[in-house]
Design brief:
Blueprint: H1 6-13, H2 23-32, E1 41-48, E2 60-64, E3 75-78, H3 82-89, E4 94-96, H4 98-106, E5 113-116, H5 121-124, H6 128-134, H7 149-158, E6 160-164, E7 170-177, H8 182-198, E8 209-216, E9 222-224
Parallel strand pairs: 3-4, 3-5
Antiparallel strand pairs: 1-7, 1-8, 2-6, 8-9
Helix pairs in contact: 2-8
Pfam families: Ribosomal_L1
Family: Belongs to the universal ribosomal protein uL1 family.
GO biological process, one term: translation
Length: about 230
Amino acid sequence: MTKISKKKKFNQKLRNQKKTYTIQSAIKILKTMKSANFVESVDAAFHLNINPKKSEQNIRGSILLPHGTGKKIKIGVFATGKNVEIAKKYGADFVGMEDLASIIKKQTIIFDLIIASPETMEIVGKLGPILGPKGIMPNPKFGTVTENIKQSIQEARQGKVNYRNDKNGVIHSNFGKINFSEIHLYENFLTLYNNIKQSKPNQLKGFLYKKISVSTTMSPGISINCLTL
């Protein structure tokens, strides 16, 4: 039998597993939990009332959180011509073409985001089996296939979040760090919640959210009462 650490026991006792909370109360509880020896991310899991097997019901989108995510991300950019210098100037960690593709294949550098100008997609498209499962395949809907490389990099650095549901109809997304203030975490969550809600498929009748829970990187999840949002 796996032994439960004192820290885990302490954190589990702070919330009632059978109870749902307002998002404000849940954030307060998360901030009183014993954390790891690093600044943990705060994440949300949105369980949606969709059928992910129907393409028209799948949800994806992006939103710039008002207070960012607090996460330092590594950005790779596929670009040619003047966009190469633009990408370097505005903070891309690596800019290239075949050389960048090789790095991704060998996983020499692990990227959090890949941006591509349209003319590079012939090369980028071949990386779909690698980038797709990681959720970082460039996509026009996310603003990561774009002529405006500068804007895409700047938004990513400022805290733009891309989201999409998985095969179980759940959207997992980060909305800050545990050292953010309660109000900043609340405002980030509400921005993300409302943006996903606005993406509700026209074919879907009734409610969108079945269940929502929030947690930190290492903490147990706290269920949110959707009726209070």
